[in-house]
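== Item description ==
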Amino acid sequence: MAKVYASTVIPAPPDAIWTVVRDFNALPAWTPFVAESRIEQNKPSDQVGCIRNFRLKDGGRIREQLVELSDYEMSFGYTILESPMGVENYYATFRLSPVTDVDHTFAEWDAEFDAAPEREDALVEQIGRNVFAAGLQALKQRFSR
């Protein structure tokens, strides 16, 4: 099983960041790689079980299902249902935690998945750099203004 992890410190309080990322359909608003997104069957975007269907700027289409959401822990978890990446059993978690000596946030994004052995290293690199690190960097820039 492959594992991917990225983290950063964002110069803003967790509540401010949570209001942006909590919406499971908000990827186009805070990531640089998603062109458009919709929640299937018009379900609420914070309802566990809802499915987001989004198009990447490179044209790829991905469907993901929200499987957990905690306002208390400021975290959510999701699985990939369909993707051009060739991953299976994909489960990711996004979490925010306060940095208590300053009013900042520790943000972390991780995933585990299965893939063909010959593609595993490339997928870990691609997801880690082009998805997780890029998304966290975009959040950091948004709140550093």
Notes: Residues 47 and 66 are 8 Å apart (CA to CA). The chain has three helices and seven strands. The mean pLDDT is 95. The domain at 2-143 is CATH 3.30.530.20 (Alpha-D-Glucose-1,6-Bisphosphate; Chain A, domain 4).
